[in-house]
Amino acid sequence: MLRGGALGDFIVTLPVLAALRARWPGSYIELIGYPYVAELARVAGLVDHVASLHGAGIARFFGLRPEIPDAQRAHLRSFDLVFNFFHDPDETVRTNLETGGARHVVSGSPLVEDLHAVDHFLKPLESLAIYEAGAQPSLTLPDTERAAGAARLAACTGDRPAWIIHPGSGSPKKNWLLGYFIELARRLRAEDRVAPVFLLGEADDAAREGVMRNAPEIPRLDGLTVREAAQVLAAVHGCLGNDSGISHLAAALGARTVALFGPSRADLWSPRGPRVTVLQAPGGALDALTVDVVRNALSPL
Questions:
Q1: Are 248 and 268 in contact (CB under 8 A)?
Q2: Do 257 and 250 touch, CB atoms closer than 8 A?
């Protein structure tokens, strides 16, 4: 399978891997993508091997009449199926894969338009008589991974159940106001029923500065790898976030997840999971979601 994209894009593709594994349990599945996220599929047993898009030389398949090395041709021929989820409107990649040795190519566009993202990526599997509409992404980590996450949380919260608060996303326009996140975290801390913990990643510089300046008393997990974040989310009591890859990851790991949506279409991109609550802001304006509304959504969880 060839799959680019960020964390959320990867998570909504997991049901494809799960469906292939279920149909052919003894198959060898190789995922070519960005290892920092794709490695989660290997850890969870959905794929056997992960290769980097760059290291695998996939870029040459986007060119006209590329020179494909013999070793790469042989590698392609060794697979019964190749799934191509790159943007390929003129089918250049598909054609090059086929002429490069791929026996059978199944293509799907990464552009989600009218179906929920999960169902969109499952749709191409219908050509193989695999029907999984409505499936939910699922990641089950080994006990050792969950234990590592629990230990990291315990260092922040002791024995209190932790709620991860992730104030970032891939775009500032998708972020609830940082001041609201901080106010909510303070309320949770004061109520002393759960322990709030901010999760901050490499793209959350603005949020990091605001949290450190205005809420230094709230514990923080900062600079974790995606795998380390997954370990934590597999052990956490719940997760509050925006329309982000972290919210999708938390839902796939089975955590109680509350995702806040503003301008994005929740009908296409909401996280799917057994314990997911989605709050769509009225009119798409995230500042219309008050702290009280979000706190009330957390209460039954």
A1: no
A2: yes
